[in-house]
Amino acid sequence: MIECQKVKKVYNLGTSKEVVALEEATFYIPKGSFTLLVGPSGSGKSTLLALIGALTRPTSGKVVVDGEIVSKLPEDFASLYRREKVGFIFQKFHLLEELSVLENVVIPLIPTSSPTIYKKAQEVLKRFSIDHKAKSKVRKLSGGEQQRVAIARSLINDPKLLLADEPTANLDKRLTLEFIEILKELKGEGKTILLATHDPRFLELDFIDKILEVKEGYVIS
Amino acid sequence: MIEFAISSLKRRFWKYLAVFFIYTLLIWLTSSIFLISLSLKKELFLTVEELPEIIVQKTLAGRLIPIEIDRVEKIEEIVGVEAAYPRVWGYYYFAPARVNFSVVGLEEIGYTKTLNNFLALNEFEGNVMVVGEGVKRILNNYYYKEFFNFITPSGEFVQVKLKGTFPTTSALESSDTILLPLPLARKIFQLPSHLATDIVVKVPNPKEVPLISQKIKTLFPDSRVISKEDIKASYQNLFDYKQGVFLAVMLGAFLAFFILAFERISAIGQEEMKEIGILKALGWQIRDILKLKFLEALLVVGNAFFIGIVLSYGYVFWFQAPLLRNLFSGFSVLKPTVEFLPVWDWGVFITLFLVTVPLYLFAVIIPSWRASVVDPEEILR
Amino acid sequence: MLSPEVLILLILDGAILLFLTLSFFTAVLIVRYFDFSKDTPLQYYLERRSYLVSVILHLSFSLKIPLLFYFVYTLDKLSNVIPGAMCAAGVITSNSYGVALLAVKVLNIYLFGLWLVANREDFFTKEYRFTKFKFKFFIFIYLFVVGEFILELLFFKSLDVSKVVSCCGVLFDATKNSTLFSFFLLDSKLSAGLFYLSFFLLLFFRKKIYLFSLLTLIFLLFSLISLIQFFSPYIYQLPTHHCPFCLLQKEYFYVGYLLYTFLFLGTFLGVSVGFKKFFLTKEDKSWPSLLFDSLYLLVVTFYPVWYLFKNGVTLF
Ligand SMILES: Nc1ncnc2c1ncn2[C@@H]1O[C@H](COP(=O)(O)OP(=O)(O)O)[C@@H](O)[C@H]1O
Ligand SMILES: [Mg+2]
User: Fold this and answer.
1) CB A21 less than 6 A from any atom of ligand 1
2) Which end of chain C is more exposed for a tag (fewer CB within 10 A), N or C?
């Protein structure tokens, strides 16, 4: 599913502020697996996720996802790739606070201007049992509800690949456990999941297929 | 997408309100000025339409002087000319009110339709006069209710009875005019009976006008021949020029506005920056963001345009443009009675559209683009 | 000449020029430094600037088309002021810049259109394959845009309200062999014949893309000549009235807008298939172009046929 070959990322290349965020990383993540990305803060986890999600391009090396070379895509194609294949869950959820739950969830599908997007949104909301709050503003929801909205949004395009960047960093224990349950369910559905965290609790989960450790830009399997 | 654009505008209501408000105001102002001048132009052209096809004047050393009446017959002999009439008219300066009245002497047959209709209904002989509304108002202010004393060039008084007021079709034409029987007009101006102010020529076929003008010019080299078309062209020129100058001034205001709009919109806040980053990370393409931003801009400018135009219509034709009219009616003190005739001209509408909408879109190009290329990676930090 | 219309034309064209100048600098940078394999901030910057230029061109293009019509409208309006001129034709020939200006205006719209075609293809490739090409092409276009603006300034500056000009009746009169349009003065029937001939050649060679594009240009030329020489008298129902501008007026039901839209769209598509094949290595069908060419041909043919049907005679 994900194949990285000697992927290296240097920020601000060719300027005086060069930062090496990722050294040549080579690994393979099979389809339908659950992979944990661990390492201290600043080690390059987010950078790796950004490269796999085609939010930026590597300085050198190659990233192939689902048979598509995503390390060399122009920006618009990268967006298209994310729209079709990737679901993102961010550290602070990154929901648009002033919009309603429903409006937030349809965001990834708005550019497709397909007429069924609201129906789809209702369905995912139902699945995470927050459809009764569809019309309320995200700002007024509790942390747990916001989390479920964020997950619903990442799944509305039915992605093959789910990328999560420290999704539980701001959550208490109960919500973290709830989140883990959902992840397990999604893995059961065959989604490929890549989760970056420095929360040691994740290491004890029984459904982990692979752990990638990132240290000062080096990736160790 | 459009729903998203609307909700995006709503969320930044205050940011856009100022832009929207000022833009509406500017469109309203420009449009009002266009409408007023267009309406005046229409009025003027209505007047000009009534004019005879050709006016013949006599010049001496480059100045206009009275013309000999015997030329009328010679002009009538030209093929294509239906009739020619001498006219006696001029300006009478009424010193107390410091205004000029147009004084027109009439024979039994007038040379415009409205005058003819009017004369047919009234007895019009001896020391009587008929005046326009504006003249009547001014005379009343100076307590001339029944009659008025003209002073001839040699200082004699001529008492003239005020017989009535003029029917008004077009306010510009008649408001400052005094109509008198021809002999009386001669007396007041002390114009000898073999002379007239000018000669008007009726030509039924407009296509023959240039040729006939040419012939008159050859016949009387000292004459100045003016055709209706010339007058129209010079009016058009004048109006265009006025409008042009005005527009140039307006554009100064627009420019100031654009800088403001630019400032406002290009100041993408942290919040908005983040929002766009999220959209892009969730699969929005650059072109989607651009679409969104231009939709927002179109919503703002489209509504401002529509409201501005509607407001200016109401303002000019309903309320008769209080305040602004003073700017335009600087012709003479008599003119403020002008009532603006409603006009609708696609050309002006399009002109207004072109001067406002595309420039706004140009003003938002760079801010919109800047928003669209926000780096989506930033939101992972 | 300072009429509001002229002022607006100059301002909008000036605004377009300003933004295109901005794009011009981007174009130079991109032609020199663009390299998609690089991961430098400069490269990201250039990619993003490329989008800016694309937005600017889209907006300019969509503005240039109505502005062309507005330009003709302005000329029509000015014809009231300029003695002798009855319609835009008299104004545009009243000084030596007019015809060139109009030609460059039309040419630039074609060029903008072609640029947008290249831009679209570029954004459809996953490796920015045509980016450098489209910006080289842009630099070329930019020169024409500057030329257009200078011509426009000169044209309006030298418009003279006191000089008597000819009306369209004189300008397009074949017997008088007048100056600027003398090139256009083929015999009426011959011009119509050449027009139909070039259309059938187009049909015949619709599969040979390069030839098709070339023939499209010839078709455009004969369309214009025959419109002036042969078809317009039928449209005006007046054998001596040859004018490509009066068509746009209300008396003739604004048929000119329809005709010119079909003609310019059809020939643009015809040129663009050749352009695509040559520069963008993309094969396109020629039928959309032929469709609009045929629509033009049908509308324009309708007039003489109708005239013949009604009056039983032809004009020439
Ligand atoms: N846009 C950027 N510009 C410069 N340096 C960056 C940028 N993004 C990340 N970095 C640097 O790259 C390194 C890796 O960061 P990151 O991938 O965010 O680590 P993690 O997610 O593991 O905390 C850090 O040293 C960080 O400062
Ligand atoms: Mg991180």
Assistant:
1) yes
2) C
Burial B16-42 (b: 16+ CB within 10 A, else e): beebbebbbebbbbbbbbbbbbbbbbb
Q: What are phi and psi of B157, to 5 degrees?
A: -95, 140
What are the extents of the domains in chain C? Answer: 4-158, 168-311
Distances (CA, A) of B155 to B115, B129, B149, B150, B319: 30, 20, 11, 9, 45
Please list the residues that pair with B89 across neighbouring strands.
B104
State the burial class of residue B226 (Cβ atoms within 10 Å of its Cβ: 0-12, 13-18, 19+).
Answer: middle
Q: Is the CB of A42 under 6 A from ligand 1?
A: yes
Measured between CA atoms, the residue of chain A closest to residue B373 is A75
In Å, how far is B144's CA from the nearest CA of chain C? Answer: 44
Inter-residue contact A50 to A4 (CB < 8 Å): no
Q: What is the ipTM of this complex?
A: 0.93
What is the pLDDT at residue B209? Answer: 81
The model's confidence at residue B45, banded by pLDDT at 50, 70 and 90, is: confident
Residue A124 neighbours by CB distance under 10 Å? 22
| Residue A26 alpha carbon to ligand 2 centre in Å | 20
pLDDT along chain A (221 residues), means of 10: 91 89 90 90 90 93 92 92 92 88 91 88 89 89 88 92 88 86 90 89 84 84 72
**Measured in angstroms, how far is the CA atom of residue A165 from the centroid of ligand 2?**
7
Contacts of B182 (CB under 8 A, 6+ apart): B88, B105, B106, B107
- A11 Cα: distance to centroid of ligand 1 (angstroms): 8
Q: What does the mean pLDDT of chain B come to?
A: 79
Mark yes or no for CB contact A53/B288 under 8 Å: no
**Per the structure block, which two tokens stand in for A67?**
């048979």
Q: Please give the pLDDT value at position C179.
A: 47
Residues of chain A found within 8 Å of residue C40, distances taken between Cβ atoms? 13-15
Transcribe B3-46 into DSSP letters.
Answer: HHHHHHHHHTHHHHHHHHHHHHHHHHHHHHHHHHHHHHHHHHHH
Question: Which C residues in the span 3-22 are in contact with B, Cβ-Cβ below 8 Å?
Answer: 3-8, 11-12, 15, 19
C40: buried, middle or exposed (CB in 10 Å: 19+, 13-18, 0-12)? middle
Q: What is the end-to-end Cα distance of chain B in Å, rounded?
A: 28
> CA of A76 to nearest chain C CA: how many angstroms apart?
8
Amino acid at position C230, single letter:
F
- At C205, list the tokens: 């060679």
Q: Does the beta carbon of A9 lie inside 6 Å of ligand 1?
A: no
| Ligand 1 atom showing the smallest separation from residue B375 Cα | 1
Asked if the C-beta of A128 comes within 8 angstroms of chain B's C-beta atoms, the answer is no
Burial of A60 (0-12, 13-18, 19+ CB in 10 A): middle
User: In the predicted model, what is the mean pLDDT of residues C85-93?
Assistant: 78
How far CA C214 is from CA of B374, C184, C208, C219, C277, in Å, comes to: 44, 20, 10, 9, 13
Q: How many whole angstroms separate alpha carbon C8 and alpha carbon A96?
A: 42
Residue bearing the CA closest to ligand 1, atom 1: A11
A41 lines ligand 1 (CB under 6 A): yes
Q: Contact at 8 Å (CB) between C219 and C300?
A: no
